[in-house]
Amino acid sequence: MATSSKEKIPEYSRISELNCIDVSDPDTQSTVLLLKKACLESGFFYVINHGIDEEFIDEVFDQSKRFFNLPVEEKMKLLRNEKNRGYTPLFDQSLDPVNQINGDYKEGFYIGIEVPEDDSDAEKPFYSPNLWPSVDILPGWRETMEKYHREALEVARAVSRLIALALDLNSDFFDQYEMLGKPTAAIKLLYYQDRTSEPANGIFGAGAHSDFGLITLLATDDNYGLQICRDKDAKPRLWEYVPPLKGAFIVNLGDMLERWSNCVFRSTLHRVLGNGQERYSIAFFVEPNHDCIIECLPTCQSEENPPKFTPIKSQDYLLRRYSDTHVNLNLYK
């Protein structure tokens, strides 16, 4: 009999219990209170009843698997470019280089906002045409991913409005800051090979890190792997597995929200451990407009609690973080 993913969890592992945020609930006040509790306690929560059809999400996973099952030489034709579009091979990213020996044991594929080459915005670091597999090899692939990007962005908008209310702001605060009107939101398809991670030896599916932007929406298959650490300063750190929840997004807060909120809401450390089974997930990184200035919110500061971070332009922060965690493209030449 096949071993289930849950049975692959090491004995005595901690399992995280996260709040479920129902974005369709008409009782907005109760939803905001539940979300705020989640943001204060763990920075992670589930989002349910988000409006994306479960069968369509299954289709996105199927298309993702089709791409990662292609021969390496086909995938390398779509190698990630300087605008962070395209395929990321094994070890292309190292999210915790101090504690990793080779980098992340995962492959990926970035899909961002589609901006034509002749558009003036295409000069910005995270805007450009996407890289797409040939329709002869993967028919319908582009259409599926573009639809998913549109629908995931609508879910992100709904969640951002609840977060704004939880921070005592107007619900449209982040839209006013051109964050979700013209963001740098990107899908990253992820494939973890069937290797068992060895934390003591520096081998991880994905090293410990926090995400860069406002929030991340994560869809996963039914294999365990994602772990969170509620207190990054604890010694030793205590890691908890986040159980997959069919049809739900796992949502976590990013560094820019931590900066905006003056650390009221934290960007939580997380990592992925391989358990000897293949694992697929789909991350949707919601990051601000290039020119958005990230600075302490008026509702999150006082004389006793002054701003902890200097203001920074979104583009500058993202460029640094992506550069720090990805290998130099010259290494592939």
Task: Explain what you see.
The protein has 333 residues and is an alpha+beta fold. The chain has one domain (6-327): Sandwich (Jelly Rolls). It has helices at residues 28-41, 54-68, 72-76, 141-166, 173-176, 255-260, 314-325, and strands at residues 14-15, 20-22, 44-48, 86-88, 106-111, 186-192, 206-209, 215-220, 226-229, 240-241, 249-253, 269-272, 279-286, 293-294, 312-313. The strands form 3 sheets. Strands 2-3-11-8-13-6-5-4 form an 8-stranded mixed sheet. Strands 1-10-9-12-7 form a 5-stranded mixed sheet, with no helix packed on it. The chain has a two-stranded antiparallel ribbon with strand order 14-15. Strand 2, helix 1 (28-41) and strand 3 form a beta-alpha-beta unit. Residues 182-288 form the Fe2OG dioxygenase domain. InterPro entries: DIOX_N, IPNS-like_FE2OG_OXY, IPNS-like_sf, Oxoglu/Fe-dep_dioxygenase_dom. Belongs to the iron/ascorbate-dependent oxidoreductase family.
Order of helices and strands: EEHEHHEEHHEEEEEEHEEEEH
In whole angstroms, how far apart are the ends? 46 Å
CATH architecture level-2 label:
Sandwich
Query: Using only CA atoms, what is the Rg?
Result: 19 Å
Helix content: 10-25%
Across the major sheet, the strand order is 2-3-11-8-13-6-5-4
- Low-confidence spans: 1-5
Q: How many helices does DSSP assign?
A: 7
The CATH homologous superfamily: B-lactam Antibiotic, Isopenicillin N Synthase, Chain
CATH class: Mainly Beta
Roughly what is the average pLDDT, rounded to an integer? Answer: 92
Q: What is the SS-derived class?
A: alpha+beta
Biggest sheet: strands, sense, closure? 8 strands, mixed
* Count of discrete structural domains: 1
